[in-house]
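User: Could you check the structure of this?
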Amino acid sequence: MHKAAEDYEWVDSNERLAALCLEWRKQPLLGLDTEFLRTDTFYPKPGLIQVACCGQCYLLDPLKITEFDEFIRVLTDPSVLKILHACSEDLELFVECFGAAPQPIFDSQVAGAFLGLGLSIGYQRLLDTLFQVEVGKEETRSDWLQRPLTDAQKLYAAIDVTYLSPIHQILSDRLRQQGKLAWVMEECQRLVDSAAQPADHGRSYLQRFKQAWKLQPKQLAVLKELSAWREDEARKRDMPRNFLLHNNSIMEMAIRPPGNMRALAAVEKMRGRTVSTDGKQLLTLVQDALDAPLDPNLESPPRPLPSSWAKRLKPLKETIRQVADQLELAPEMLVRRKDLEELVRSGLDGQEFALPVELKGWREEVVGQQLLEQLQSIDKAE
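Assistant: Sure, the predicted structure tokens are below.
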């Protein structure tokens, strides 16, 4: 495998990429990886795209190549399985840069979790586990936008993708033997669907401010407006969210709305540049949110479960542990705490308990339905 990595082909022309793509679409699978920078920008900046196919490694230069139509066809070709490792950031990059997420995919980190290799096994550790190959991490944080790239960078990038096909062969065989391959493919499709889902800027506060359930309605309205503004502006300006307006700043402005520039400048972690550039607009957003009629449909992040439910959760957690042991899975891989709490919360207001989306699919069959029946029994007994 190292020989294939050392014999990589550097691809920096539209014509060569288009010709390769026609060949790649004839194959059943290929390895895929990216190198990028994202230190002071909102969007990841691609520095390199790596493809491994038929024992050959290709390093694509996105700083030189300008036509990616054929490559996008490869990414979205349903007959070509794309193999990645820890793919979340790669998927985001493909969606942002090319408007499409690769699919179908096989994520070797997800597969490793289903095989008991660890919830988030790293690529280097996976290589060591499967092939007794040690790979350094020295180039992980290097400058992938510099040109020319060093020989060490190119070799590191090539190794990152060269082993993906044999990794897939080993892990998919084990998964097939254990009856888990379909589960992994379903899990990988969830990652693709999540990456491809359009962002709802108006609801971003629900994901980023978990303590917002403590806020009063007017405070929550301020938080929502500031969060939505930041989401839009960070994308327009290509700035990290917290560079533009820190989470702590938004929360403090919601709790103690500033009424003038002096009060705004005193807000925790408020940048002077933000005050001078956007101060007036921020004060207007705050005041408008305070003056507007309350939105009856304004969502709040969920409250923690009532303390009375701590005891009731124990038998549910025990069921999860037992099923996970039988399947040789980590309990956290089977049912995340967040999903269990969402299941419980679904019936707290006198409604029927209902499985959240994350507990449907393969999880519904192996544990979801059992948890649902347990909850209903607990509810009736009390």
